[in-house]
Amino acid sequence: MTTLRKTTYLLLAILAIFVLPWVGASIQYQDQFPPDFFAYPMLSSPQQEAFSWPIFLLFAGLSVAVIVLYLFPRLFGFRAVPQPDYRPAKRVGFPLWFWLGLVSWGGVAVLLWTKATGPAWLLHWSDMPLFWGFALMIDGWVYVRQEGRSLISRVPQEVIGIGVSSVMGWMLFEYLNFFVEDNWFYPKGDIIDREEFLLYAAVISSGLLPLAFEWYSLFKSIPALRERFSLGPKIVLPEWLKTTALWLSVVLLVLAGLFPAQLFFTLWLTPAILLATVLDKIGVWTPLRPIGQGNWTPALLIALSYLIEGFFIEGQNYFSATHGPNREILYTMAPAYWQYNLPYVNAYHLFEMPLIGYSGYLPFGVYCWLWWIAFATLQGIPSRFFQEAPFQPHKPEPA
Question: Does the keyword Transmembrane helix apply (predicted)?
Answer without folding.
Answer: yes
